[in-house]
Amino acid sequence: MGAHHPERPQRISAIEDQLIAAGLDSALTRFEAPLATDEELARAHPLEYVQAIRRAAPRAGTVHLDPDTAMNPHTLNAALRAAGAAVMGVDLVLSGKFSSSFAAVRPPGHHACRARPMGFCIFNNVAVAARHALEQHGLERVAIIDFDVHHGNGTEDIFEGDPAVLMASTFQHPFYPYSGTEDPASNMVNIPLAAGAGSKQFKEAVTKHWIPALDRFRPELVLFSAGFDAHAEDDMAMLRLVDDDYGWVTAQLKSIADRHAGGRIVSMLEGGYALSALGRSAVQHLRALAGLNA
Ligand SMILES: [Zn+2]
Fold it and tell me: Active-site residues: which are they?
């Protein structure tokens, strides 16, 4: 994204470092993500948009797609692999080979709207995962859980009113991108949290709002938009979550997945910019996905 940009390559190595430090590294099976195809991307975006992004990719230097979102000569490949990881994660889990997958990818995706890049995001990775599960694997109900500190406006743009998808989210409000609170569609369980809110308010939102809606919806697959920027140490925003909250919320959703979805969970990295907190929180998320917190 350019020099001094918070969405930086070190985010991935920070997660790797903490996985090793936590002793989780050896418990994981690793895959290299393939490039997403136009067909896979066009389930979430108009094909014209996908082609416009391909044309926008520079041979040298940097082009800005919006004030926060840039492409250098490597960005297109990274964005295609991030979306390809979504497809692969769904395939690995729905084939029964693995109960869950986590994609440590950049750029993130949940601000990418149907036909607009935004907020560090180019392709909406979790939307590509959801549509792959619905259209390629024939599922009928998929839940998207978004605990990033920013509202996943792109995911909402793609799925609002879609009865096959229930999106449950928490986000700081009022805050970028200033969406999610005005008359959301009935398949959007949007719970805004005020600046300064922490574990207590987050757990209340999950317990009182997400869980009952998810039990009524009975998802066949649970997808995470896993952004870790609501952590207290992350100065991108002003929520006050701690490491353990990420293990807790993941365990709550694992129970939902166990009840309704045969335990199947696919998680995509979104935000998280305080490197140590990002890595530690991702470890809590993965430990809970693997059932190691019990
Ligand atoms: Zn975010």
Answer: 111
Model confidence, pTM = 0.98
Tokens of 26: 């050896």
Per-position DSSP letters for 181-248, written without gaps between them:
-SS--TTEEEEEE-TT-BHHHHHHHIIIIIHHHHHHH--SEEEEEE--TTBTT-TTS--BB-HHHHHH
Q: What is the CA(228)–ligand 1 centre distance, in A?
A: 7
> In this predicted structure, what is the pLDDT of residue 95?
98
Determine the distance separating the centroid of ligand 1 and the alpha carbon of 152, expressed in angstroms: 8
CB 188 within 8 A of CB 143: no
Count other C-beta atoms under 10 Å from residue 7's C-beta: 19
CA of 141 to the centre of ligand 1 (A): 25
Average of per-residue pLDDT across 167-189:
98
How many C-beta neighbours within 10 Å does residue 212 have? 11
Q: Which residues pair with 269 in a beta bridge?
A: 226
Contact 269, 246 (CB under 8 A): no
CA of 97 to the centre of ligand 1 (A): 31
Helices (H), the chain: 10-21, 38-41, 47-56, 75-94, 125-131, 153-159, 199-205, 211-217, 243-260, 275-289
Give residue-wise pLDDT tens across range 33-69: 999 999 999 999 999 999 999 999 999 999 999 999 9
Chain segment 177-187, per-residue pLDDT in tens: 999 999 999 99
